[in-house]
């Protein structure tokens, strides 16, 4: 590659492509240990080519976390999640969370690893807590309706349900035999049968 080509950056990476490589690198090395220089090396681009698409490393992180959180927040705001019996709404959100995780596996994996060390991470943690609180409230509604067993604290129920969903990032493989729809069915069968009131 000539010096001119190196300075301009190689064609072949758009904004989404750069973000995908950044997310994979953040997961592999950790966000703090990943530099723009390392990303440029991985991409075969100049740093200025990355900055053409993203103003900073933190902007890359923000875009990745927003993809994961935005997907979850969208599920919670869907009509099936805001109307009808609480048990059905809970099932809808669980199913939707599985679909988001499968569709956004790298971004959700990254989301689950942030610890609040930067302003972007703290915002992501806040949004995750808002999601958790909304889910706890939904569990309470289902308990009050007699659909979900009330002998287990709603906070514990919510943590166990979404802990199971979140654990998919550790073992789920998109190229495996089970697609998102079947996986969501299996999660719902295991999760809801365990918490359903007798």
From TrEMBL:
It comes from the Bacteria. PROSITE patterns: HTH_TETR_2. Pfam families: TetR_C_24 (PF17932), TetR_N (PF00440). Residues 35-54 bind DNA. Residues 12-72 form the HTH tetR-type domain. InterPro entries: Homeodomain-like_sf, HTH-type_TetR-like_transc_reg, HTH_TetR, KstR2_TetR_C, Tet_transcr_reg_TetR-rel_C_sf. Keywords: DNA-binding, Transcription, Transcription regulation. The keyword rRNA processing does not apply. Gene3D superfamilies: Homeodomain-like, Tetracycline Repressor, domain 2. PANTHER family: HTH-TYPE TRANSCRIPTIONAL REGULATOR BETI, HTH-TYPE TRANSCRIPTIONAL REGULATOR RUTR. This is TetR/AcrR family transcriptional regulator. It comes from Agrococcus versicolor. The lineage of its organism: Bacteria, Bacillati, Actinomycetota, Actinomycetes, Micrococcales.
């Amino acid at each position: 590659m000539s010096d001119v080509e190196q300075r301009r950056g190689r064609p072949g990476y758009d904004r989404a492509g750069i973000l995908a490589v950044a997310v994979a690198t953040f997961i592999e090395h950790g966000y703090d240990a990943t530099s723009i220089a390392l990303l440029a090396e991985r991409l075969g681009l100049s740093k200025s080519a990355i900055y053409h698409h993203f103003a900073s490393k933190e902007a890359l992180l923000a875009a990745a976390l927003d993809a994961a959180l935005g997907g979850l927040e969208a599920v919670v705001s869907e009509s099936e999640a805001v109307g009808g019996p609480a048990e059905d709404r809970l099932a809808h959100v669980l199913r939707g969370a599985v679909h988001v995780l499968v569709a956004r596996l790298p971004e959700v994996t990254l989301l689950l690893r942030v610890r609040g060390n930067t302003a972007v991470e703290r915002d992501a943690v806040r949004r995750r807590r808002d999601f958790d609180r909304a889910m706890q409230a939904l569990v309470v509604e289902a308990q009050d309706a007699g659909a979900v067993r009330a002998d287990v604290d709603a906070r514990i129920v919510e943590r166990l349900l979404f802990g199971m969903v979140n654990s998919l990032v550790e073992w789920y493989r998109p190229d495996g035999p089970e697609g998102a729809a079947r996986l969501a069915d299996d999660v719902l069968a295991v999760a809801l049968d365990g918490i359903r009131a007798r």
